[in-house]
Amino acid sequence: MRIHTRNDLIKFIEDNAPFTGVLRAALNHNENLGGFSRLSINHGSGWIVRLTSKFNRQWLIGVAPDKTLASKYRIWILFNSVPWKFWEGDKSENLLYRGDRPEEYKLLRNKEIRRCLNLKEQI
């Protein structure tokens, strides 16, 4: 399977959910946050999807290309907050990379970058 569209991304998560609660949440409500240059400290680029269960439990799911796996993608749960400073959705016309609400995500990225710059100035 190759991920080209939002539907492909959600289908991959449904087919490869780490556990049943994630699958149920994917079927209930999902929000594609778009493409990120870094998903976490140990992972490179990929997508993040926020899943919400019918009981309002949320999971952040990372999906990244990985040529060493048969599925060609790695999936995992992100336990930290969304790394907004690495969001790159505005660099692509592809809706998969832009996410469901790109204007909101751009504001969140810029806010996070300003916060990081302010922290550096305080040091």
Describe the overall structure.
The protein is an alpha+beta fold and 123 residues long. It has one domain (6-122). It is built from 4 helices and 4 strands. The protein has helices spanning 6-15, 20-28, 95-98, 102-122; strands at 29-36, 46-52, 58-65, 73-78. A 4-stranded antiparallel beta sheet has the order 1-2-3-4. Strand 2 and strand 3 (58-65) form a beta hairpin.
Largest sheet: 4 strands, antiparallel
User: Total number of β-strand segments?
Assistant: 4
The order of strands across the largest sheet is 1-2-3-4
Domains, number: 1
Low-confidence stretches: none
The N- to C-terminal Cα distance equals 47 Å
Outline the secondary-structure elements:
Layout: H1 6-15, H2 20-28, E1 29-36, E2 46-52, E3 58-65, E4 73-78, H3 95-98, H4 102-122
Antiparallel strand pairs: 1-2, 2-3, 3-4
In short:
It contains four helices and four strands; from the N terminus they run ααββββαα.
Please give a handful of descriptors for the protein shown.
123 residues; alpha+beta; 4-stranded antiparallel sheet; 4 helices; globular
